[in-house]
Design brief:
The protein is mainly alpha-helical and 471 residues long. Among the domains are: 1-32 and 54-168, Serine Threonine Protein Phosphatase 5, Tetratricopeptide repeat (Alpha Horseshoe), CATH 1.25.40; 392-471. The protein has 23 helices and no strands. The radius of gyration is 39 Å and the shape is rod-shaped. The two termini are 63 Å apart.
Length: 471
Amino acid sequence: MKKILNITKNLVSAGVFLSFFVTTSLVMMASGAEAQTKKEDRKYANVKTKRVKPLPAKLNKDFGKMAKCMEQEPADTNCVLEYLNKWKAKGDSVPAHARVKIHNYFGYIYSTLGDYPKAIIAYEDLLATPEVDRPSEDAALMTLSQLYLQKGLFTKTIKYMKRWISHQDEPTITSMMIVAKAYFSIANDSEDNRVRTKNFKLALPYFMDSIALAKAKGKPAVEARHSLLRVIYYELKDYNKVKSTLKYLVTNWPKKAYFMELANANYVLSGKNNISKSQVSLLEKQQMLYFEMAYIQGMLKTQGDYTTMAQLYQYHGTPSSASKLLKKAIQDKKIDSVQKNYESLAQSYIAGGDYKKALRSLKKAADLAKTSKLYARYAYICYQVYDYKCSADYFKRALDKKDLSKKRLSSIYMSKGISEVNLRRYKTAKLSFKSAMDVNKKSRKIAKSWLKRADYEALRYEEVKKYLHKK
């Protein structure tokens, strides 16, 4: 069976990733009054501490003025930047621990203004400052990793987030996802298959760990994480994992795309060489099952959806289901009333042995297409239901198109002649048989036998007429 579903290579765009991972807050303000929770206090309990050095009195005073600038409506960031630039200009004459606060405040202000390049410079300067305290360092690392993520500098995102993680007792869900997303993006942006495979593999454990951590903490499952995970499995061609991930997705977030992909995953797995016939049969049935589940839930929208579902019904030996689906889809205008769809509907009826219904659909297809192929096909069905007038008429229409091969032409002349014999049109029948002999020498033997039969039937018919007339 030819491949029914087509899954595009890039299932998720980079824009979706950014909206998922970018957080809403950007680090503490630089006044030194950052709030520390009990958990944060415990986090740094084992870090070697130093006596907190006081800020220079004049800087402390200016920080107070900056705070008032920020309290205005709207906040006067120009005022704050003026004070900060004044202190920055003093260079190394300002104590290192004070420069940390200045750089941190610069980063916060530029982030607030959306000037991320300058914010990045400020936080990089903070990290380069001697004697940077661990809380300030970690805050800068977290913010820098997010800013680089926004800018698409994924290698630096990974560098800073891994450094942040190394300082923690345990990573957070967000930190794991940022690293995972960065590796994913490197892979997704590359056209080199080796680079893609390498970075998808690097992303995988971070996705898995973030999902496991969320579960351990009792957090609700997040669709985006599992959705991205199934993309990685697709890229690594691990279709068993694709299937299990998609089953989780359709259970928790039933969407058409997931049902379609799950059907396709079963199709791909059924084509593997190392499985038994019974496994192939099971996988093919599961392919139809998930497609049908989408259909039952009203998820089929396109003409391709409906025709694919009909093909699956046909393939799995349920043509009556295929014909019901196609008939309703045409009636409800889900699919167009065109030759191709009427022909598919007729084929479903034929497969189910309902030739009368097949005739109606095939006639519509033939009259729309006006091709010798469909005229002849319709004529053959007419013949099968003993409607010889119809078959003779449509065989003639097929012949009138004058585009048939010699072999096909001979066959249709023969079929037309047989229909005409049954209609007692013996003269035209004999002409049809002679035409069949003329176009294809291989038809001569059977055509001659039908010529004899036509003569016999004509003679017999005349004798019966005479007998009835005398009587």
